[in-house]
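quick one, two chains, predict together pls
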Amino acid sequence: MPSSIVELAAVQKRFGKGPLVLDGIDFSARQGDFVALIGPSGCGKSTWLRLIAGLSPLSSGSIKIDGAALEISKRELAFVFQEPTLLPWLNVRKNVEVPLTLRHSPPSQRRVLCQHALERVRLAEKVDAYPRQLSGGQKMRVSLARALSLSPDILLLDEPFGALDEITRDHLNEELLALRQEQIWTAFFVTHSVAEAVFLSNRIVVLAPNPGRIHAEVSVPFAYPRTIETRRSEEYFQLVREVSRLLRAAEQTSAS
Amino acid sequence: MKSRWPSILLPTAVGLAALGLWSLVCHIFKLPIYVLPSPLEVLAAARDERAVLIEAGLNTALVTLLGFPLAVIVSAGLSLLLSLSRSVRASLFPYLMALQMTPIIVVTPILLIWFGSGLVSTILITFLVSFFPLVVNTTQGLISTDEHLVELFRMSKASHWQEILLLRVPAALPYFFTGLRISAILAPIGAVAGDFFAGNSNGGVGGLGFRTVIYSAQLKTPALFATAGVCCLLGFVLVSAVYWLGWLCLHRWHDAYARNDR
């Protein structure tokens, strides 16, 4: 049994004096888990990621990585935002290298890691292009390459493909799983799409709103690597229906 | 690719039509030359005064090329300071506004008392006239950085200096150039106005503002028109240089500056 890598215990979060955004979150992710977070708007999905990323402090409770406090963790964390979040004045190569540059890694090493990451997202020929010359899907791939160039242990994805058309989104989902075969990370993936959650993850957390809390957890039994065939199987459709039902139920509950 | 001809032909046609109308007005109403000289009389004055106008133009250009960069440097530093926090902005901005709101003709006598007439006063007037749009725009640029990019930097444990130099400053460049374009129009005006109120010929011909004082005292209206032409020329050269510099820095990545390469 693999040990837990990310552990949330009795996590509460509120912004300022506002209402609770997350309440009583207990969750433990094992190494290699692909956790999808799904729930109605305002259920604190993105906040969950931001807490793990250390971008926002907890109100109470604890988040531990390898059993130790977040701040002292040696694990490499990467965040993929909903928008590509590229620096428009840098070309693709330099964009991918940004986190490495900020960590003062030597130029020769940066080059190799960047080249490798771009090859994996099939954008090696675009190294010299500027973001404005890329399509939405290509920009997202650069953003993904930037996250992967760090060889992260934990990958946090905040609705990364939400703004893309469905075909591009399906392709990127397949690519993301292919990347996972090469480099195992533990992922938290926020999405609004049940189909996407079922296809990508091995665990789905359904959240209920006001305040955000865990409504149900579903485990997805399909073995990796998953392919387009997975998407066509009867079991896949059944699970999509099941999660949709849970999501509907979560929407109707309210703690008040 | 679209033809560039309309963008050259149209303004030329408008200019020629205006000159024609102007000549016609002078011809019909027989106005005295000191009220409204004809275009040809202005041209003649420009030819007669060319040595003086060229020297005066160069003197004013010098003032502009000292005062304008001073405004750029001071505003860059000030903008960095203002971008640090909301409270810094709240404490300093009212006074910057007050400085901008004080008419330059009220400030000038004070500068004259402190520094006398001449180069220092005219440079300071050029600076005062042109630095405000730079401060406003550059500060806005420095505080408008995409929040997610800032978070990306913080997650990568970027230092404060890395965040400023590698993120906030380049992100502010388009704003900076917007300010620079406005200031480039104001700076030569400031240099001429400064020279008008606080100029000093130092035995030479003075700058364009000083010439304006002389020519108006002598009622040399054609020469005044020619002086106006030199002022415009100076402004156009500076503004063109600034547009070119902006294009050079931004055309590869900024949509508003890029054309025909998509």
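Chain A has one domain: 31-56+76-252.
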